[in-house]
Amino acid sequence: MPEHQLHPDLAHRFELLEASMRELKDVAMRNFFAGEIERFRFDGKAGTTRWLDDHGSNALSYAIYNPNDFRVFVGLAGTGATADALIVPKQKLVVAPLQINGRVEVAADAEQLKEGSGTILRVRFPTPQPFFVGALT
Questions:
Q1: Is the distance from CB of 106 to CB of 73 less than 8 angstroms?
Q2: Number of domains in the chain
Q3: What is the DSSP-derived secondary structure letter of residue 29?
Q4: Which pTM does this prediction carry?
Q5: Rounded to an integer, what distance in angstroms lies between the CA atom of residue 44 and that of residue 21?
Q6: The domain spanning residue 120 has which CATH number?
Q7: Which residues are registered as beta bridge partners of 107?
Q8: 92-96 and 132-134 as β-strands: parallel, antiparallel, unpaired?
Q9: Are 46 and 110 in the same domain?
């Protein structure tokens, strides 16, 4: 056997290892980092203060990025988007490891929104993400 060739058994094991690494990378890229992003725009003058988030697939984590000067309420598990719901503070990102199987109501705090407007970003993650509340600056 020439010096630069691997033993056939080792070559086969190396090929299997390479295939496993490629598959692991594909799974990681597809599941751990990917999320479905949707924008919701609120407009107090037009009376658009609520959205029914029924876009996208089921999720194991849900995130709202709120760069605005008003709070956002997220109604989960059939509850409405009120002050008793999950609250996303002004200018914050909230990531919650919550299973979402369907529709979620998202609303701007109408008292704070008043005649203003703003856009939030929602992300549905197919895998659990760690709980996080913080500012993105």
A1: yes
A2: 2
A3: I
A4: 0.72
A5: 51
A6: 2.60.120
A7: 50, 73
A8: antiparallel
A9: yes
Q: 101 lies in which domain range?
A: 36-134
Q: Give yes or no: residues 56 and 71 share one domain.
A: yes
Residue-wise pLDDT tens digits, 16-72? 777 766 666 665 555 555 788 899 999 999 999 999 888 777 889 999 999 999 999
Say yes or no: 82 and 21 in one domain.
Answer: no
Q: What angle do CA 97, 123, 72 make, to 5 degrees?
A: 85
Q: Do 74 and 95 share a domain, yes or no?
A: yes
* CA distance linking residue 60 with residue 22, whole number of Å: 25
Neighbours of 88 (CB within 10 A): 25
- Residue 36 bridge partners (DSSP): 124
Task: Read off φ and ψ for residue 93, nearest 5 degrees.
Answer: -115, 130
